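Data availability (excerpt). All sequences and predicted token strings are deposited with the supplementary files. A representative entry, Tyrosine--tRNA ligase, is shown inline so that the format can be inspected without opening the archive.
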Amino acid sequence: MKIYEELQARGLIAQVTNEEEIKELVNNGKATFYIGFDPTADSLHVGHFMALCLMKRLQMAGNKPIVLLGGGTGYIGDPSGRTDLRSMMTPETIQHNCECFKKQMERFIEFGEDKAIMVNNADWLLKLNYLEVLREVGAHFSVNNMLRAECYKQRMEKGLSFLELNYMIMQSYDFYYLFQNYGCNMQFGGDDQWSNMLGGTELIRRKLGQDAYAMTITLLMNSEGNKMGKTAKGAVWLDPDKTSPFEFYQYWRNVNDADVLKCIRMLTFLPLEQIDAMDKWEGSQLNEAKEILAFELTKLIHGEEEAQQAKTASHALFSGGSDDSHMPTTEITTENLNDGVINVVDLLLTCGLVASKSEARRLIQQGGVFIDDAKVESIDDNITSVELEKGIRIRKGKKTYHKALLKPSQG
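Structure token line:
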């Protein structure tokens, strides 16, 4: 099976602008394509994961990826799927986040001569003259058409800023620049980027003519896969210091039954024949499928050794074992204690298991918090420093485990 047909069989393609041309390019290793990543945090998250997998598959088939870091577009912020204005980042934060992205991607995508390249749109966007952009780029965009775009709809309800309105122009200019300077003939993106990507092909047509336009391809990734990643955006990171390999493994181990085979098909590199044989799995077999998914994806991001350790720790934990060496852990300091104790509500908040005290209270009152396998009965319960010195195991619901330890005194 050729790569385009494999992408279809894995459910990765939702829509393309020129299907026959894209088949010809990617199946013969002639595509030079880009995917953009705006540096909104200091780590990639699982919302980026499908794009990285798609990039890796195409590279393995001989095509050339361009990783575009949004060091310039990060100054504006993508309004797609937002109901509020993104927080403004300082230039130093944007640069730091770009460096973090770069290090993570280098473990996943193969960079080098005739392989993948990484570029930063700050290198050309920050040099643009405002009046030149208005005349040379802005003149080719209809505001009426822009306001009908899906990426702006949610923001229109609360008020779309002029700053955000320019995001489509900047992203479109990226494709135009990459086409001219890097021979980029294809752009990939998620369902929320469709209008922005079509803006890029239209800009090329208007600026360079129909012949250039005929050479550009836009591919929309399947929105189902995009949604699966976005459900954990901001919560499950690819950086092991923000989401441990054990937590990463557990996230995929706990996906919904209805999503597990979809995730295996879209995100792992297991042969399709092996995945097709799982289609009829049900009941306890779906738990086995979840373990396969969790192991394969943890191995891709963190390596086989970490994946095996996470799998072993998960088995020990859920079979009633005592091995919690790979469990996410929070050190409680003496400053967190009041007269040698910490209230259980404060403990949940300190460990990052809840977003607020009200959430912690509600969780406890619903019987969803356990400490060392004993249900927490009251929001007034306290944990002593003696208990914390030994270490306690917290369980939130059925599947989220955490350990709390008293940090040793420095004296």
